[in-house]
Amino acid sequence: MMSSLYGVYGASGCGRGILPLARKELQQRGISLDRLVFVDDRPEIRLVNGHQVLSYTEFLQKDATERHVVLAIADSAVREKLAARCAFDGVKPWTVRAENSVLMDDVILGEGAVLSPFVVLTSNIRIGRYFHANLFSYIEHDCVIGDFVTFAPGVKCNGNVLIEEHVYIGAGAVIKQGRPGKPLRIGRNSVIGMGAVVVRDVPPGTTVVGNPAKALLRG
Ligand SMILES: CC(C)(COP(=O)(O)OP(=O)(O)OC[C@H]1O[C@@H](n2cnc3c(N)ncnc32)[C@H](O)[C@@H]1OP(=O)(O)O)[C@@H](O)C(=O)NCCC(=O)NCCS
User: Fold this and answer.
1) Sign of CA dihedral 32, 38, 44, 48
2) Which of the listed residues 18, 135, 209 should we mutate to test ligand 1's pocket, taking the one with most ligand atoms within 8 A of CB?
3) Tally of domains in the chain
4) pLDDT for 107-119, tens place per residue?
5) What residues make up the domain containing 69?
């Protein structure tokens, strides 16, 4: 009997971190694990951590009633490109959440998200499409997060923060809270360095590092 096929798109480190979450979810739904594969544009190895690696074309050709993928790619521009390709081919976005991730109250999470273990999203939060929150990250109350935003492990995003699309936040960064009606704003395409302490708005397209975070000046 034909059934749905599930893919983790990207067989590198990010994908190997996400696959166990996907596997757990399918096991809980009683879905056979041979329906879970890696998808990779250059599948050099054909078996990774017990799962087949298919090229995208092979993934589309395999018998299936429906196809679902989670995009295991940290680079948000690549993620956006792949999301468009999948939508075009009728491949459905798949949100994968660790069992112990916590969504507290009135959290709207866009399609195709990945929530790693120990991620906590508190209350009255809006999150766009294809969000990635890596291990031990949190988002506090009243934050608004755009599409294709990426949190590395241990990001602490406090209340009333507005993060525009395609922002990357490095490991262990801390974002100061904003105020109701006057959020702290991180502009589109900005990069927050690991360990940065962000205490004021970050203009679009800026890389900031340090405590307090300042624009990275390249020599
Ligand atoms: C900020 C960042 C994006 C800059 O990367 P880059 O453009 O390749 O920068 P470089 O490594 O060339 O470093 C440029 C300068 O910034 C400094 N620097 C880099 N990252 C820094 C950081 N997080 N905090 C403070 N200083 C930093 C470097 O020491 C270097 O200083 P120098 O010119 O005086 O020698 C990157 O270092 C970073 O923090 N990325 C996030 C990593 C992460 O969280 N990974 C998690 C993976 S899951």
Assistant:
1) negative
2) 209
3) 2
4) 999 999 999 999 9
5) 5-94
